[in-house]
UniProtKB/TrEMBL annotation:
Region annotation (Disordered) ranges: 163-191
Protein's recorded name: Recombinase family protein
Membrane in keyword set: no
MF-aspect GO terms: DNA binding; DNA strand exchange activity
Keyword DNA-binding: yes
Originating organism: Streptomyces platensis
Occurrences of domain Resolvase/invertase-type recombinase catalytic (ranges): 20-162
Gene3D superfamilies: Resolvase, N-terminal catalytic domain (3.40.50.1390)
Length: 191
């Protein structure tokens, strides 16, 4: 954020039409590639690129991307209009909105239908999801699809790791060492 005054980008709602809610999400706080600081930096850049400012942060830490945005603890109340006025959402990427095509499209179309902005880092300007702009709609859908495919890959890796952990190996399959019980450490029980 070289040359940008952060106080100008983060300020209260003022009805200017570009008062954006920052949407950050991480399934696990230890993921360095989507760190909170990096997401914040990307969103400040994206908000500034459209002449907007951030009025607050919907930080859903430890929340899976598979969770419907409308039911997330921090973002959900904003989407249900329980938190106050805002003019749109800004996120570091489409996958920070969610990792499900339907959830991303529902959130995007909610913003469109309510005349609100949807901005993500790396996309020029706000997303225009009107039916008259198929290329933009298709790109948004493809990014949401990519996020969903990544979720499936993550889930597959977790399942495979669980199966591998539970599968006995030759080293763990035989009689167990009984050091504490017999004082005969380093040997196996007689078979």
């Amino acid at each position: 954020m070289r040359g940008t005054d952060l106080d100008v980008i983060e300020r209260p709602y003022d009805g200017c039409g570009k008062s954006l809610l920052g949407v950050r999400r991480l399934s696990r706080m230890k993921l360095a590639t989507s760190s909170p600081e990096r997401q914040r930096e990307d969103m400040l850049t994206a908000a500034a690129s459209v002449g907007g400012h951030i009025i607050g942060w919907a930080d859903d830490w430890g929340v899976s991307g598979a969770t419907d945005p409308a039911t997330r603890p921090k973002l959900g109340p904003w989407l249900r209009d329980e938190r106050g006025p805002y003019d749109g959402l800004v996120a570091a990427a489409v996958d920070r909105l969610g990792r499900n095509v339907v959830d991303c499209l529902n959130t995007g179309y909610k913003m469109r239908d309510e005349g609100k902005l949807l901005v993500t880092y790396g996309h020029d300007g706000p997303w225009d999801l009107n039916d008259t702009t198929p290329p933009t709609r298709n790109r948004f859908t493809m990014e949401a699809w990519g996020a969903q495919m990544e979720l499936r890959a993550i889930q597959r890796r977790h399942r495979n790791a669980t199966v591998k952990t539970r599968t006995p190996t030759p080293r763990t399959a035989g009689p167990r060492r009984h050091c504490a019980a017999t004082g005969n450490c380093g040997t196996r029980e007689p078979t």
